[in-house]
Amino acid sequence: MKLFNLYIKHRLLLGIILLFAAMAVHYFTGFWPSFIIYLVAVVSIAGHLFFGPLRLIQEYMEAGDLEGAEKILNSIRFPNLLYKPIRSVYYTLKGNLAMTRQDFDTAEKLMKKGIDLGAGSSVMQGTEGASLLQMGMLALQKNNFKQAESYIRQAIRKGLPDKENEAAAYLQMSSIMVNKREFRAAKDFFRKAKALKPTTPQIADQIKQMEKYISRMPG
């Protein structure tokens, strides 16, 4: 696996070197002796251009090394050449990183682009709901409750990857309903969030805090 990741990291440079080597072999000996070298060179260069090094980002994200992940993304010079579903993931990841910098306008623009590109794609299956949830969170940061509600409802319909994300979505919907003074709906969404028994400390704490408020609401 490490060897394959090393290949992905350097395959553009390797492809260029092999292309020149193939041209030299072709010049001195003929086409057929150079054919395999040409093939490996073309596959390496095309792989970098059409699929990019996104596979390498996972280990950086898991380690919490956002700077390393951004460095990998920035190494993609021509994102429009990426295979469409891969391009969708690229823009979604760029949006996530912009969100961690609290650059909400850029994050919203990039994540929307990622969602639009990945709509209906099997690559985005299971992640589209999470992206829509993040879009809803971004809208809430801007106090755009109407847009936030639209995104979060879409996220719930599309499906979310785990109970933590589901609980977060229901909690946000509960808050939006409180803001709209639709207290019965707020309580319903809160019950759904609590029933999932999320273990993420931040979400669990939000449930405890909100429970005190919910119990005093009419409806």
What can you tell me about this protein's structure?
The protein is an all-alpha fold and 219 residues long. Helix content is 77%, strand content 0%. It is built from eleven helices and no strands. The protein has helices spanning 2-29, 31-51, 57-62, 66-74, 84-100, 104-118, 128-141, 145-158, 163-179, 183-195, 201-214.
Keywords:
single chain; 219 residues; mainly alpha; 77% helix
Indicate the topology.
Layout lengths: L1 H28 L1 H21 L5 H6 L3 H9 L9 H17 L3 H15 L9 H14 L3 H14 L4 H17 L3 H13 L5 H14 L5
Helix pairs in contact: 1-2, 5-6, 6-7, 7-8, 8-9, 9-10, 10-11
State Rg. 23 Å
Rounded average pLDDT: 90
Low-confidence stretches: none
Number of helices: 11
The proportion of strand residues reads under 5%
Spatial shape:
elongated
Q: Kindly state the percentage of residues in helix.
A: over 70%
Terminal CA distance: 57 Å
The helix/strand class is mainly alpha
Major sheet details: none
Helix-strand topology string: HHHHHHHHHHH
Q: What is the number of strand segments?
A: 0
Short description:
The chain is mainly α. The protein contains eleven helices and no strands.
